[in-house]
Amino acid sequence: MAFDYDKYIRPGKLPHIWCPGCGHGIVMKGLIRAIDTVGLDTKNTAIVSGIGCASRLPGYMDCCTLHTAHGRAAAFATGVKMAKPEMDVILVGGDGDGTAIGGNHFIHACRRNINMTYIILNNKIYGMTGGQFSPATPTGAKASTTPYGNPDPAFDIAKLAIGAGATFVARGTSFHANQIDKLIAEAIQHKGFSVVEILDDCPTTYGRRNKFKSVIEMMNHLKDIAVPVKAAEKMSPEQLEGKILTGVLFKEERPEYTSEYAKLIERAKAAK
Amino acid sequence: MEKKLPTIEIIEKYCKGCHICVEFCPTKVLEMQGFVAAVKNLDACIKCMQCELRCPDFAIKVTP
Amino acid sequence: MAKKVAFLQGNEAAAQGALYAGCKFFAGYPITPSTEVAEVMSAELPKIGGKFIQMEDEIGAMAAILGASLTGTKVLTSTSGPGLSLKQELIGYGCIAEIPAVIFNVMRGGPSTGMPTGPSQSDVMCAKWGTHGDHPAICLVPASVQETYEEMVRAFNLAEKYRTPVMVMPDEIVAHMRERIVFPEPGELEVINRTAPTVPPEQYKPYDTSFGDVPPLAAYGSGYKYHVTGLNKMQDGFPTTKAEIVQAEEERQVRKVEANKADIMKWEEYLVDDADIVVVAYGSTSRSARFAVNEARKNGLKAGLFRLQTFWPFPEERLLEISKKVKAFITPEMNLGMCNGVVKGCIEGNAPVLGIFRVDGEPINPGQIVDKMKEVK
C-alpha cells in the first residue's frame, strides 16, 4: 500500500498554499512519516510554528496545532512543554522566523535542552513577504532587498544550534526525501532539544533571482552540494569546499529540562 | 512469471505541475500532460517510490 | 479561628493572590520594580507542583504563558513599562486567539527605561492601546496591598471567564509598600475556571459561538485537537479573510468585554453623592485623594472621591451621570493627563476636568489636591 498521509492531515485542507516546486510539502511528508514511525499520539502532540510559509505547516496537521507570532514558536512551545511535559512538542518554521526575529528564543531553547524537536525549513529567503534576504541567505545572493548582492554573511544554522547547546542536530535536504523522515524520527526519539535543518528550495522568490532556471536545477544543486557526514570524513578540505554536510551532525546526552524541573519540584516539596 | 505492475495514482486537483516527479524518475515513467503529471510508461516503473516521496503536493500515490 | 495576617509588600501580595486563584505557571524576565513577584513564584510554585520559568526576554515570557495556558493551566507573567511595551504584540495574540492570561505590570517612570525605581501611572493607556488592532482590554488598578491580592484573584477569574488577557497595574508605590494583609480563607473568594467543552472532540470548534460570546476552551492534550492562530479566524480556528466572518469575529472579541462591563468594572464612590468637586483617582494617588477629600470636607468644601478600581473598561456612563451635578472634576495622576483625557471624553463637557500631573517620580500629595480644589469657582 502507498503510505497513508491522509491519516495525519486534516480533512479538506489540501491542496496546501505552497508554490509549485516549493520543498515544504516534501518536508511535511517526511514529518508525517516520522510521526508514524515513532508512533506519536496525535491527540498528545503539539505542532508549533511562527510566521512565514513554513509556519503554515501545522494548520494541515491533525494534531494540537499552534501558529504563533513571527519568531515566537520556541517560546510558545516552551510554555506548552513545561506546563504539560507528557505532550510531544514539534516546532516548525523557516530560517528567517527561527534565526532572525526568533533567534533569541531559538538559542535559549537549545541551551535549556528541553525535550522538543525543531524542524527548520531553510530556503535561504523570506518567501511569504516576497523574497527578502534572511540570515541564511549566502553572501552575494540576490534578494528583493539585496539588489546589488547580499552584503551579509550567512548563519550556519546547524552550527548555531550545536554552539547554543542543542543535543541533537541533523541536516537533510528536500532532494534527499527518503532521509527526512529518518532524521526527524531520530530527533523526536532523542531526549533533549533536537534541531533538524532541512535545506529547501524557494523557486519563486530565491531561485528566479539567483540564476536557477527551475526547481529542478535547484534540487540538482542540493544533490550536488550535499555530502553525508560519513563520506566527508574521507574527503580533503579542498574536496569539501562549497559542500554541505548532511545526516546526524551532533548528538550528546545531557540532562533534559523538564525532567530536571520535575526533580526540582520534588526537592521543593521535600523542603516545604 | 508475469511482472506485477504497481499503480500510480495522480491526484490532479493537488498537482501544481512542478515537474519534480517527471524529471527525477530514474526510468522516465511520468510525463507532463498539460499542467499536471501523468503516467506515460508504467511498465518501466521500478517502484523506487521517489516520485511519491518527492511530490511536494501530496498528489502522487504509488502502490507497489 | 482567626484569619492569617501578614505584613506584605504589594508585589508579594500579588503573587499570593495568584496562587489563591490557582495559578500554576509563571514565566517572566527580571525587571524593576516587579521582580519580587517572580521571586515569590519561583519559590512557591514548585511546592505545589507548579512551574516557574525565567525566559530569555519579555517577549518569550509572554509567549510561554500563552502556550502554557493552552494546556489548561492558569498562567501569570509580571513586568514593568519596558517589558509591557515588549509584550504588546503577544498581548494582541492572546486577545485574538482568546487565551486566558494575567499580566501583572508595575507602573514605573517612562517612556523607555525612564525611571526604573520611580512610581508612575503612565502605562494605563498602553493597557488599552499598546497592541495594534481592535481588541478587548481589561485593566485593574489596585490601591493597597490587600486590594492587590484580591484583584489578582479577580483578574484570574476575569481572564478565565472571558477567555482573554487581563492586566493588573499597580503603581510602584502600591507594588513596593508594605501593609497589613488579611488572607482570605480557601473558598472565601470566588475562583472561576474556564469552561471546558461538553461536545465530543470531533464536534469541537475553539470559537464556536453557538455557546455564546465566550466559547469553551479545550486543553491541549485532553483529547481535543484544534488549531490556534494569530490570523483572523473562523469558528473552527482556521484562518479566513472572508469579510463578514472577520467583521463578526472582531466585533465579538470586543463585545465579550464591552457587553459585560457591569460585571468587570469596579469603582468606589466616597462622599460623591452631594459633592461639588469629584476627584477621580486610582492607585496610590487615590490614597492622597481620599486624605484631601477629608481635609476639604473639614473646611466646608463639598468634595468627593471617585476611585477607579478598573481602568478598563472605564466607567464612562457613571461619570457622565455624576458630571451633570458637579462643579468640577479633578484628576491627580502620575502621568501627563491620561485619565484626565478619558474623563473629558465621557462627560460631554458638563464640567471642567482639572488635572494634577506629576512625572517626576514623586507621589502626588494631598496638599496639591486641596490646592487644586480651591481653584474651582
Descriptors:
heterotrimer; B: 64 residues; alpha+beta; two-stranded antiparallel sheet; two-stranded antiparallel ribbon; globular; C: 377 residues; alpha/beta; Rossmann fold; 2 domains; seven-stranded mixed sheet; five-stranded mixed sheet; 13 helices; 20% strand
Helix and strand arrangement:
The complex is a heterotrimer of chains A (272), B (64) and C (377).
Chain A: H1 24-38, E1 45-49, E2 64-67, H2 73-83, E3 88-94, H3 95-101, H4 103-112, E4 117-122, E5 125-126, E6 132-133, H5 157-164, E7 168-173, H6 177-189, E8 194-199, H7 215-225, E9 226-228, H8 229-233, E10 244-251, H9 257-271
Parallel strand pairs in A: 1-2, 1-3, 3-4, 4-8, 7-8, 9-10
Antiparallel strand pairs in A: 5-6, 7-10
Helix pairs in contact in A: 1-6, 3-4, 4-5
Chain B: E1 7-10, H1 20-24, E2 30-33, E3 36-39, H2 50-54, E4 60-63
Antiparallel strand pairs in B: 1-4, 2-3
Chain C: E1 5-9, H1 10-21, E2 25-28, H2 35-44, E3 51-54, H3 58-69, E4 75-80, H4 81-97, E5 101-106, E6 108-109, E7 115-119, H5 124-129, E8 139-140, H6 145-162, E9 165-168, H7 172-176, E10 178-182, E11 227-229, H8 243-258, H9 261-264, E12 267-270, E13 277-281, H10 283-298, E14 303-308, E15 310-312, H11 316-323, E16 328-333, H12 338-346, E17 353-357, H13 366-374
Parallel strand pairs in C: 2-3, 2-4, 4-5, 5-9, 8-9, 13-14, 13-16, 16-17
Antiparallel strand pairs in C: 1-10, 6-7, 8-15, 12-14
Helix pairs in contact in C: 1-2, 1-6, 3-4, 10-13
